[in-house]
Amino acid sequence: MSQRLFVKGNEAVAMAAIEAGCRYYFGYPITPQSDIPEYLSRELPKLNGEFIQAESEVAAINMLLGASATGVRAMTSSSSPGISLKQEGISYMAGSELPGVIVNISRSGPGLGGIDASQADYWQSVKGGGHGGYHIVVLAPASIQEMYDLTMLAFDLADIYRTPVMVLADSVVGQMKEALLPNPRPVTTLPEKGWAVRGRKEGTPQMIVKSLFLGDGELEAHNWKLHGKYDVMREKECRQELFLTDDAELIITAFGSVARIAKTAILMAREAGMKVGLLRPITLFPFPAQAFKEVTGRCKKILDIELNNGQMVEDVRLSVARDAEVFFYGRPPGAGSLPVPEELFEQIIKHY
Amino acid sequence: MRYDLFMAGFGGQGVLLAGNLLSYGALIEEKNVSFLPAYGVEKRGGAAMCTVVIANGEVGSPVIGRPSFCVYLNQTSFERYGAKVKDGGIAIINSSLVDDSGWQRSDLEVIRIPMNRIAMDLGDARMVNMVAAGAYAARSGAVALESLEQALKSVLPERNHRFIPANMLAIRAGAAAITP
């Protein structure tokens, strides 16, 4: 067993990227994710990698597109307003079926908003933030260990499905320090990147990476192909944590940082004799709909808690059993709006 | 066991370093830890604070509304966050800089330690955070002083390792200020 390290979530992301074989990073500084480029600017050159501080977020996402097109593992990271700027590039990557990892250590909005922890980018992340009706895989870590493990998973899923993958977290998980076991990269069988543009050799077919399809019926077929992949992801890649749900009479659902706060509130409720559990989506897309259907087969009350005015709750409502009741408690993000366990415990009492 | 600590002072007092040190010490003891710095638009001389949760099992929430243990290093943080301490909890106050006369919290155990004076007597007022860390470790039992000594090697950059003996003196002085 390797030694436990004590690192920030942002550092864990950067370490995982390196362990996953990512040697190309393109980004532009923005709080609260700048530890990621800071770390990689120091470490990638030692590994013969490339760190580029781009002139803008738009440039960085297009550099990611270009690097991914050549078949290498590459990453960009930013925070909410910067991620908004990247949406056009993400849409092009989705359309071109390019892998690539995008990290959003989100901050509060809309607009310039503030730097506090926020989950208000849920819709933008899971519903296709750019134009054209696509999805990307979205992973929501809730601990420093998950920041590391899910970043490595992000690279694998990106390669397996030829899709951009987003790691979505906030300043709580990004700036917090916890113990980290820097696990080695898992052994996975990955598809060959036969589609990559690596310089054409005599007698080999021409490779084109593009999202432009003008032939009659071509684009429709392409869209059906993309959505076929999303169906496979929905079937095979849903991940969630179930905590004390077996006998629960109220199930809390929350993702990322606020799920951690909710967990302590749940333990407070258990101490008070209330049967409360947690269903924490780890993949936000694909959304673990089946898990919601299953738990609400027995437990009829769900309390959704988010650091926004209610976004994931829409997917929860679409996923639960018909006779289940879904309640919502949200704190729109901003300075002083991060709920504490005691506050969530009160919500549990209210809905139990 | 589960220990939660909220520590606050002004930027430059070393609140975050002390939090890091305690966290690292707990890590050495194979415990689980979360260290959450207050993250805002802070600057030197502004407020600095952190929440540390040390647990044998899962940490759970890194955010604590009413910590059972609070350490206040300056007057502003005491006035702003004095109400945070959980009912029946423990407050350690840097009495060199904090005047808590008139504080209406009879439910608390209040420990007043002249941390700046202790640090200055040891040669450097900047060690006030080490005095605080020692006092907290001794009163809470969350971390052994020996672990803090080991942890100093990890949290201080190599070039500052020569200050470890002095810092240990400050940690032990903080611990000694806790009357059994």
Number of DSSP helical runs of chain A: 12
Termini separation of chain B comes to 21 Å
The total of helices of chain B stands at 6
Succession of helices and strands of chain A: EHEHEHEHEHEHEHEHEEHEEHEHEH
Give the strand content of chain A. Answer: 15-25%
What is the CATH superfamily classification of the largest domain in chain A? Answer: Thiamin diphosphate (ThDP)-binding fold, Pyr/PP domains
Instruction: Outline the low-pLDDT stretches of chain A.
Output: none
What is the fold named in CATH at topology level of the largest domain in chain A?
Rossmann fold
Helical fraction of chain A: 25-40%
General description of the model:
- The complex is a heterodimer of chains A (352) and B (180).
- Chain A contains 12 helices and 14 strands.
- Chain A is an alpha/beta fold and 352 residues long.
- Chain A folds into 2 domains: 5-180, Rossmann fold (3-Layer(aba) Sandwich); 240-351, Rossmann fold.
- A 7-stranded mixed sheet of chain A has the order 3-2-4-5-7-6-12, with helices on both faces. A 5-stranded mixed sheet of chain A has the order 9-11-10-13-14, with helices on both faces.
- The termini of chain A are far apart.
- The relative contact order of chain A is 0.13.
- The model of chain A has no long low-confidence stretch (mean pLDDT 97).
- Chain B has one domain: Pyruvate-ferredoxin Oxidoreductase, domain 3.
- Chain B has 6 helices and 6 strands; from the N terminus they run E-H-E-E-E-H-E-E-H-H-H-H.
- Chain B has helices at 15-28, 75-81, 115-121, 128-140, 145-155, 164-176, and strands spanning 2-10, 32-37, 47-55, 69-72, 90-94, 109-113.
- In chain B, strand 4 (69-72), helix 2 (75-81) and strand 5 form a beta-alpha-beta unit.
- In chain B, helix 1 (15-28) packs across helix 4, helix 4 packs across helix 6 and helix 5 (145-155) runs antiparallel to helix 6.
- Classes of the chains: A alpha/beta (352), B alpha/beta (180).
- Chain A binds chain B through residues 4, 6, 32, 115-117, 171-172, 175-179, 260-265, 267, 335, 338-343, and chain B through 20, 23-24, 27, 32-37, 39-41, 58-66, 154.
